[in-house]
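User: quick one, fold this
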Amino acid sequence: MEALLAIAKYGSFHAAACRMHVTQPTISMRVRELESTLGTRLFMRAGRGVTLTPSGMLAVRYAEQALGLLEELETRLGGKAPLNGTLRLGSSEMIAMTSLPEIVRQLEGRYPGLQIDITVANSFTLHDLLATGKLDISLLTHPDTSRLVRLVPIALAEVGWLGSEKRLSADTTFSPARLAGQSLLSVPPPSPLHEMLVEWCLKENAPPPMLNTCSSLSIIAGLVRAGIAVSLLPVCVLADEIERGSVIRYQQRRAFDPLRICAAFPRTASGSDLNCVVEIATDVLSRHRNFSAISSR
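Assistant:
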């Protein structure tokens, strides 16, 4: 495949042989073997050079993809830093809504040739993708340790009941009993927010309230912003609206513990570049007015 791409690029067997530091008969033999395997001609003579047949043009596209995948495989299994090629970055929706643009900007500034493939999902899904090797690193909220995934706590995010006076007055104090009969919106299980809600109710010796659900945190935030719903949310996703007074953070008889934000990556991963991602994310969150440092609690 390397011979095929070299000939296609330089226009002749001789030029390809010089570039690959082999003899021209070696290049010719490699092409014959490839043509025999594929059962088709890849090149036609054109004066002193050659041109690709239609089959050859198709073979070039597949060869480029195949060699690219082999290079990526060598990078991942050969101990090389993943930031030399593609970084498969996962992000919870909360991080995506508040801090991901600045994290990506700094990554691109530090690694100009880096390709970043971003997956936004809830933290439980991101954890599973990490455990099965489908992501390199994720920024997520996770309360537990894992045998397959290493978690590095980097920040805390406050959580509260948010809504507007269109739904409930600002002096409402929230408790599980007070929620009865209210139209509440939550992310569905499994999710850290849903687990927090259930645990909060259990501590108050009350059953979890009836909930409407939506899988998108940003949509829930939009519905709260519009005065349509009341929801348990990270305060950071509607911090500007709370400051302006268009969204209310209701008082609670029992406050929630803050969400613990972690950088997570497979325990088998190694290399200083992943540590750089952690450092960048920690720095961005530490300077964000709606997150607090782990050490401060």
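User: anything notable?
Assistant: The mean pLDDT is 85.
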